[in-house]
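Handout, section B. The chain below has 303 residues.
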Amino acid sequence: MSHADARPDETPGVHEQLERTNALLLRVLAEVSKTPSTHAIFVDAGYVYAAAGLLVTGTEDRRSFDLDAEGLIEAFIDKARTIFADSRLLRVYWYDGARRRIHTVEQQSIAGLPDVKVRLGNLNANNQQKGVDSLIRSDLESLARHRAISDAALVGGDEDLVSAVEAAQGYGARVHLWGIEAGEGRNQAEPLLWEVDSQRTFDLDFCRPYVTRRSVTLYEEDGPAPAREDVRFVGAQIAAGWLSSRGREALADLLPGHPYLPGSVDQDLLMEAERLLQHSLRGHAPLRRALRDGFWQHLQAQY
């Protein structure tokens, strides 16, 4: 039998195999098209507080302003919804520092928000975050490796994040760097800007609704400074009011951080003490220690 004679009998089998292959490819493509891409937002809270605080209030000191984290996170989610129009949100990762990695009251509130995961690094004696960058890299790399995300919006500026970007990109994820406008120069490292797939900067109008300067009342210091025991008593008095309004549950959350107070509680304590004493304690470190001692002494006696 010649080759020409065999071709008519073999052709239908070849055609059937091609048709089956094409049908399989079409089914795979149909499944892929129905599977939405997924994105996540990774926020370095230390960068956000410093950059947004400086832009809106002129200071990076977190004790000098309040940040509406819930409103800002929702704004980030809305922006991502616009940019990644055909993608669904996995979650927002909020990276911050805390002494002994114990959540502050503010961090507990953020952790309770829907679609938000709070991840804590440590906070050293100089209020510097430690371990946050490695947490970001670990999460970015893991999610990209398991194909859990196709796009990552990274809000930060530290050069140490370059390795996190490279790790995620190595598994096929695209990383988009989001930043906050700097009044002068840059607040994001150039090597980080070079590595990412896209860049976006949020300006003053975007940030202003979420940052509010705290009012600080200045008191005359012409008179003598109050006695340590008077300041200690005021600390205990404020603690009694704090416990009455917050409850024992908040006290249980606060006690493991002894002798340190969360920044927001410490700032409120200082401002209320100055109001009661009608004297500034800003230049009196021993009196501020006495104030905290009185605050803690009362709380520990109630536990």
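Note. The radius of gyration is 28 Å. Compare this with the example in section A.
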